[in-house]
Batch of 4 targets.
Target 1
Amino acid sequence: MGEIINNGGLNKQQLATIDSISSLVEDVSDEDKYLTFVIGDKTFGVNIEPVKEIIEYERLTRIPMTPGHIRGVVNLRGNVVPIIDLANRLNLSGHEISKRTCLIILQLAAEDETMDLGILVDSVSEVLDIPAEDIEPAPSFGVEVRSDFIDGMAKIKGSFVIILDIQKVLSIQELSQFTDLLQGVS
């Protein structure tokens, strides 16, 4: 995982949590590590491997005529990074930006192309070591999120963590049209 950028919105405890996430990342195999985060009242997890960095929410530049789940772009050290509103993409009720709101920057690959994307989440929780045998298959009913977006469900400390298949949620093929639009703007 990369670096953490704080522009003053995260308190010392939140920074310590993120620092401990960074140190945990180095101690466990990537295959079983999941970055957990919250959207609304639900906890989600994604495999840590594509996570490049976690940054504090910053003002986004909106791009006209983009789908509702594409919140805008940020300039990350000279690179334009599209930001996906994960609540909107998962058809969850809206959320408000707070001091704990974060952008998780991911590097995704498809065929011969890699792309940096950010996802907007309410807060980042922790990195968990979840062995594959502790992840149950995605339920076919009763879940608000599209079942093809779910890799599985893990029971952690008496609560469920919804493990997302981030490659499906953030389909590069689907988002490549947006990238073409961005290249036309810049």
Note: The radius of gyration is 16 Å.
Target 2
Amino acid sequence: MQGIPLKTDRNTLYIRVETLGKTPPMTPEALERGTKWLSGADLRPTRQRLSLASLLVGDGQNRHVTAEGLHEAVLASGDKVSLATVYNTLKAFCDAGLMREVTVDGSRSYFDTRTDDHPHFFWEEDGRLTDAPAEELEIAGLPTPPEHHEIATVDVVIRLRRTT
């Protein structure tokens, strides 16, 4: 099938457009999940937000996406949404607590639909970001924050490189 194959790794899906063919229309279930996801954060379900939300959470799986990858996916689905709208919408989703932004190398941002604290693997050979098993991570201690500050979050991104 042409369109947006969803690749699975450790129960997390990410969107990668393999072809530019038109994908099937959104299912009623995907639209319903997207609508519920938006309403849970009191975000008005505009056409663009609903289209992006349906791609992100329509099948109930967690995703790590880049704005560019999501833009390609929404275009492949037959919807017309600008890249600027995708960026603005992802920022709105993050501000509403629906997603978290994970920055790799200070220059590339991924957006994660799983919002609890958890580590990530960054696969250098193909630029994927996936969840890493949190139960295997131990952080023995953190430095004391400067006066009048507190630690808001600790992001752990483990970079992986193929050995053979």
Note: The chain has four helices and eight strands.
Target 3
Amino acid sequence: MSKEVNIDIDGYNVRYFEKGTGKPVVILHGASFNAEIWVKTGTLDAIAGSGWRPISVDMPGFGKTERGGYDTVASFLDRLFGKLGIEKAVIAGASLGGREALAFSVKYPQRVTGLVLVGAVSVWMYEDMLERIKGVPALLIWGSEDNISPKENYQIIMKHLTNSRLAIIGKIHPCYLEEPAKFNMELTDFLKSITA
């Protein structure tokens, strides 16, 4: 069972769910959800079952995490990493969370061991900075008929990240809701490839 944790960062409450004791995988939710979505889809169980330590966090202003005084979500994540004693992690995010995972990765490339983007939005904003993470292993998961994040977003990533691969799962933007078992399998296979 996943553990729900509330901690204080800079005087603001931050909530996350975690499970397992392996290397960390920090997961971000989309704009319509909060950290609990990754518990409901079985994603935390699947990641922990692969020997990793998933940490699904409410981003500032979502769920039970207070908005706080963070300039960006990337700076919030940097503070979270420090608070939890995380030096490096795989970072994953869906939609808005994917954009924030990408923003964190290009700002703090030394802290990222792998990147998972699920229907990430606004990828073009970071195209000029992708050179900083060109060798980072990346898994891109998109629905075949995603009408919120077009295929151009994953094409930009694949053009610049030499160690990226694409998985098309289901049709809709939150493809992890449509086919959670397949989604979790792709994710855990990717994590295994990083440790291989």
Note: The beta strands are 3-9, 12-18, 23-28, 52-57, 89-94, 112-118, 138-142, 164-168.
Target 4
Amino acid sequence: MSEVILNGDMTRRYPALRQAGRYALKRLGESRSPAEIAQAASVSRRSLCTLARESLGMELMEAIGQDQAAQAKRLSEITEQPIAGICHDPAVQFRNLWQFRRAFHRSYGRSPTHYRQEVAKRRPPTHCDRHEENPSNGTSPSRESQSVPALAEEIGRNQSRADAHCKR
């Protein structure tokens, strides 16, 4: 809600909604009630909930849950923190893992664990990833898993060795 409000057209039309969004964004990881948010925006709880429903198309607390899920999504992309750790991170702070998983799934159509796995598959390998040994058998990665530059480098080394061997 807060990011949608602060970046959307509704801020010009509904100043109370903008104030509520700012308040919720500052306290995203804290537990707060619709009444507390409404008080910070200087409107009644009922008015704020109606504004949110009409302008955002969702309930106030659902919008806040989406903001928490968005923050959790960012953390899962940039950190190696366990999913349970993200759930209780000060920037996210869901009450429990079930609530976190439900809000994340509603927002992104998959569980936090599946989302992280998809991100890991899309992430290009780092230089260190290409040169690590295979932990299962202690060997270097197979040619299929090597990148084109790494294969070209290996072919060049092998050609140099062959040339040196032929000159002897």
Note: The radius of gyration is 25 Å.
